[in-house]
TrEMBL record:
The keyword Acyltransferase does not apply. Residues 199-202 are annotated as: Aspartate. Its EC number is 6.1.1.23. It catalyses: tRNA(Asx) + L-aspartate + ATP = L-aspartyl-tRNA(Asx) + AMP + diphosphate. Belongs to the class-II aminoacyl-tRNA synthetase family. Type 1 subfamily. Residues 144-558 form the Aminoacyl-transfer RNA synthetases class-II family profile domain. It is found in: Cytoplasm. InterPro entries: Aa-tRNA-synt_II (IPR004364), aa-tRNA-synth_II (IPR006195), aa-tRNA-synth_II/BPL/LPL (IPR045864), Asp-tRNA-ligase_1 (IPR004524), Asp-tRNA-ligase_1_N (IPR047089), Asp/Asn-tRNA-synth_IIb (IPR002312), GAD-like_sf (IPR004115), GAD_dom (IPR029351). Gene3D superfamilies: Bira Bifunctional Protein, Domain 2, GAD-like domain, Nucleic acid-binding proteins. CDD domains: EcAspRS_like_N (cd04317). This is Aspartate--tRNA(Asp/Asn) ligase.
Length: 591
């Protein structure tokens, strides 16, 4: 007999009745029923009920067992009485009578319980992650993650992609986030960087003639944490293709992603039509470049109805350049109570409030109610209602100013309205490609900088770069799903002269570009093919499939909100010997 087990804790069935078996696992739960001890024995695969009565020679040893002790048992498989069958377990028709037991690993008093659904502080869960991972929900999440990665790999191979590994230690580059720097022992005073993404290397692979590349790639960014973003490292499906246009990339990645969500989405609807929405329209309609299309609400510009109107706040606002009034339709939201609640929401978000109009039944039809309706009069109110396609029992909310000042709040208000009014479909995955991103933006000091990936090809090529940089669009695209960005990508800038000009507009001279990206710039002078690709966030995909709100629920050993590993005590202080070897000195923190 095997030293530890003849079967897993999910393998035994009625066909095994009468067999002598050996099982190993953890004591999940112990129950004492009138002197007979019942133990749920758990391993990675499932649970088997084992029991021991006072007639067993092992009874005195079984009495000593406690939760989460790792044990091995020998016993005989018996059938459960029909009324005691547990249909929820694959092993629910049998139980094992213990004849012998060995403790493989005893456990101290537990800092958190594995059995049950108790809530524990995240700090406790992360410090004792190895215990947290024993819980059924976490085992399911990590198994799902592994299965998703396996399926992604197979789907990419099925489309004639090959997986290639790119370096983990490389040079620092401005990709939009802070690098993790690694000091060099052999080159004192110089530093490597952990790659924010395999961006340059995958483009170099295209120059090298590898037509289709993919990789399940680790990426490292020193970022502030969010619920949907790891503060240190993450994994992505990274892919690149030669001799392609934007639509070719879409046509390649859609069956991969759609197939993953159909395979692992638990029966939820997966949209097969993925609309293309310009960045400009996404901002107008949804207040974000990662819209949740399960919510049917589209915001609209209603500025013309408030120009010169009796509502002085909006009328005067529209006299300023670059201002707008936007409406958020709220079907079924036509009650003063709901309107007041949304007004309070806007105030919590830092705005003075949101104007509103709602329509109710009246003699001879309907009437518009609310302060705005009284100020602008029935003719303008009716024009707004018709533009928004609203009727009795509906409402509309209004925000005004420069879009960059209120757009995000408007987007969040749209989400809240959709959820509270039951308009958002919860059992669905809705995708959209966001395209036509601006290449450049102004930073806080008014300087021109890249707004997205700096290696993207501008639409219109060199000619487009001769005018106003803020009007230049790039062949850049994101895939949004249920309010999250899942994919980001671009058709790349493979021509050195266009690349130099693109970087020049962002304040990088030719010498600086050659210094920072010398390998790629040099390579592009030796017959670079047109190419493009994208990257999909593995962690975020699994988070959506697992129906989790926090990305740490689908990462084996995540950092906490302060980018600390409480289990391994990272980051840690280097020893003096390490610092001397690297010729580094640590300065005390600024007071």
């Amino acid at each position: 007999m095997h030293a530890y087990r003849t079967h897993t804790c999910a393998a035994l069935t009625r066909d095994n009745v009468g067999d002598t078996v050996r099982l190993s696992g953890w004591v999940h739960r112990i129950r004492d029923h009138g002197g007979i001890l019942f133990i749920d024995l758990r391993d990675h695969y499932g649970v088997t009920q084992v029991l021991c009565d006072p007639d067993s020679a092992a009874f005195s040893e079984v009495e000593k067992l406690r939760s989460e002790w790792c044990i091995r048992i020998d016993g005989e498989v018996k059938a459960r009485a029909p009324e005691l069958v547990n249909p929820k377990l694959p092993t629910g028709e049998i139980e094992v009578f213990v004849r012998g037991v060995e403790v493989l690993g005893a456990s101290k008093e537990l800092p958190l319980q594995v059995f049950g659904d108790q809530e524990y502080p995240e700090e406790t869960r992360l410090k004792y992650r190895y215990l947290d991972l024993r819980r059924e929900a976490m085992q399911a999440n990590m198994t799902l993650r592994s299965d998703v990665v396996r399926s992604i790999r197979q789907r990419m191979w099925d489309q004639n992609f090959r997986e290639y590994q790119t370096p983990i230690i490389t040079a620092s580059s401005p990709e939009g986030a802070r690098d993790f720097l690694v000091p060099s022992r052999l080159h004192p005073g110089k530093f490597y960087a952990l790659p924010q993404a395999p961006q340059q290397f995958k483009q170099l692979l295209m120059v090298s003639g590898f037509d289709k590349y993919f990789q399940i790639a680790p990426c490292f960014r020193d970022e502030d944490p969010r619920a949907d973003r790891s503060p240190t490292d993450f994994y992505q499906l990274d892919m690149e293709m030669s001799f392609v246009e934007q639509q070719d990339v879409f046509d390649t990645i859609q069956p991969v992603m759609q197939g993953i969500f159909e395979e692992f989405g638990g029966g939820r609807k997966v949209d097969s039509e993925w609309p293309l929405i310009s960045y400009k329209d996404a901002a107008l309609w949804y207040g974000t470049d990662k819209p949740d299309l399960r919510n049917p609400i589209k915001m609209q510009d209603v500025s013309e109805h408030f120009k010169g109107s009796g509502f002085a706040i909006f009328a005067k606002l529209l006299e300023q350049d670059g201002t707008q009034i936007r409406a958020i339709p709220a079907p079924k939201g036509g009650s003063r109570k709901f309107c007041d609640r949304m007004n309070a929401f806007a105030q919590k978000e830092g705005l003075p409030g949101m104007g509103y109009i709602f329509w109710r039944e009246a003699e001879g039809g309907m009437e518009a109610a609310g302060p705005l309706a009284k100020n602008i009069g029935p003719e303008r109110t009716e024009a707004i209602r018709q533009q928004l396609g609203l009727g009795v029992g509906d409402a509309a909310f209004f925000l005004g100013g420069k879009p960059e000042a209120f757009e995000r709040v408007a987007g969040r208000a749209r989400v809240v309205i959709g959820e509270e009014l039951g308009l958002t479909e919860t059992d669905r995955f809705a995708f959209a490609w966001i395209v036509d991103f601006p290449m450049y933006e102004k930073d806080d000091e008014g300087r021109i900088d890249f707004s997205h990936n700096p290696f993207s090809m501008p639409q219109g090529g060199m000619e487009a770069l001769q005018g106003d940089p803020l009007q230049v669009l790039g062949y850049q695209y994101d895939l949004a799903c249920n309010g999250y960005e899942l994919i980001s990508g671009a058709i790349r800038n493979h021509k050195p002269e266009i690349m130099f000009k693109a970087f020049e507009l962002a304040g990088y001279g030719e010498d600086e570009v050659k210094k920072r990206f010398g390998g790629m710039v040099n390579a592009f002078q030796y017959g670079a093919p047109p190419h493009g690709g994208c990257a999909a966030g593995i962690d975020r995909v699994v988070m959506l499939l697992a129906d989790e709100a926090n990305i740490r629920e689908v990462i084996l050993f995540p950092m906490n909100q302060r980018a600390e590993d409480l289990m391994m005590n990272a980051p840690s202080e280097p020893s003096n010997e390490q610092l001397r070897e690297l010729r580094l000195r640590v300065l005390p923190p600024e007071s």
